[in-house]
Amino acid sequence: MARRYWGASWRSTGRPDHPPLVCTGRMKNAMRLTAVDETGVATGLKRGQGLAEARAVCPALDAVIADEAADRRFLEGIADWCDRYTPLVAIEGREGLFLDITGCSHLLGGEELLLRDILKRLFEMGLDARGAISSTPGLSWAMARFGGNGTVSEGHAKSVPASFPVAACRLPEETVLALRKMGLKRVGDLLAAPRAPLVRRFGPLPLLRLDQMLGREDEPISPRRPVADLSVERCLAEPLQCEEVILQLVQRMAVTLKSELEARCQGGRRFELLLFRVDGRVFRIGVGSSVPLRDPTGIAALFSERLVALHDDLDTGYGFEILRLNVLQAETLHRMQSDFTGSAPVETALATFVDQAVARLGPDCLMRPVLQESHVPERASLLLPAADLMEIVSPGVEQRETGTGRSTKARRPIRLLKVPEIIEATAEAPEGPPMSFRWRRCLHRVRRAEGPEKLAMEWWIDGEEAPARNYFQVEDDEGHRYWLFREGAYVSNAEMPRWFMHGVFA
């Protein structure tokens, strides 16, 4: 809210003369303060205080309704910005981030300089952030909230948290209150207390959090985004704003990726371009290829199509200072022999068209039917994105069909209804074809019929009591051909069978 009121650099330029700024929300059936700025804290306001009481303390209070979704989006935006330091970024709670900087700190001269750079840049963006670096996530969490900014060496990892309150162990509020009633107010008190009575009284969570803080138990960080197989980054001396220059730089970075992909005998299927804007906003542009790809020109062409589709949504602002090209998914790429003219196979041209259409119009613009392991007509095939099913094969080699690879000799209609529609039919008992039927309020008289083709339902899906289907191919007086089926049979002392329309031949 302060950034919106006074600009992103308001902490550097100074806060204007403005009443305390707070956020309010309904807590315990009352409007209370959910967030308070520094001026409000100095005035005597605090989080959880009632709004009426806060207005009595400061009548000129500027209260804004809290928006948890907006807070979450803002935290995710900061997490995207932190990708410039490490790809292993995890969101912790409502106002925290975990960064695994193993192997990354030397790029900025060490852990102290890295932490200083993060906090300095966030301060310039109008944020009052606190951070700490240690060997465990739990200790870093406690240091940032109760110990101040800085790094903790391995030798001091066990002695530093002893003076912290028990809330530094990331325990629920009710557990913290119960521990305080027992006289356990500091982490050092937990360290000195017998473990078995603590577990019987408060459960295993307090000791688990304590062991995680001290490094006795592992606590892995789950990154919010998948880690790229390969990555190339360019830090620019001058920010870029021109899309043509950005595409040229993408092609140069793709050249660097090509050598590494060739060494692995792989090609990329999913690529991602990260654009770090000067003001901290990060744009993620993802493209996919229907076949493994490592040609720099082809990779740049995919991003060119995508930038055309995102032209109005890509706000360059004051320019981008960091560009990163990631390979999110890679597959084995077999070498292919081209003909004497050097032209590409026909399949390659089709794959290029699919990639360009998907990059501009989205992954669902082109679909392809795939056979499935089922004899029930509505389950026998499935429409999947064509970009996921394209395969290149050498001339003379039969193309493998994705799915079962089976072929059926039974004729199926050109158009198959997604859900069979019930119709009224008149037929000769017990197994005769329909002589006439009414579908969508239109009466059709059958001139020719072929069938029945009997299909039993799949008992493991439809149940053992599901009736079998008897399919008929019929032609009416106007020459239109339909695919009907009868569910059940004409049997005495039983319910009348039902007729359904399932498809249209022509």
What does this structure look like?
- The protein is extended, with a radius of gyration of 33 Å.
- Strand 1 and strand 2 form a beta hairpin.
- The protein has a 6-stranded antiparallel barrel. Strands 8-11-9-10 form a 4-stranded antiparallel β-sheet, sandwiched between helices.
- Helix 7 crosses helix 11 (205-214), helix 12 (243-264) packs across helix 13 and helix 13 runs parallel beside helix 14.
- The model is unreliable at 392-408 (pLDDT under 50).
- 30% of the residues lie in helices and 28% in strands.
- With 506 residues, the protein is α+β, with helices and mostly antiparallel strands.
- The chain has 15 helices and 19 strands.
- The longest helix has 22 residues, at 243-264.
- Residues 19-142 form the UmuC domain.
- Pfam families: IMS.
- This is Y-family DNA polymerase.
- It comes from Ciceribacter thiooxidans.
- Keywords: DNA damage.
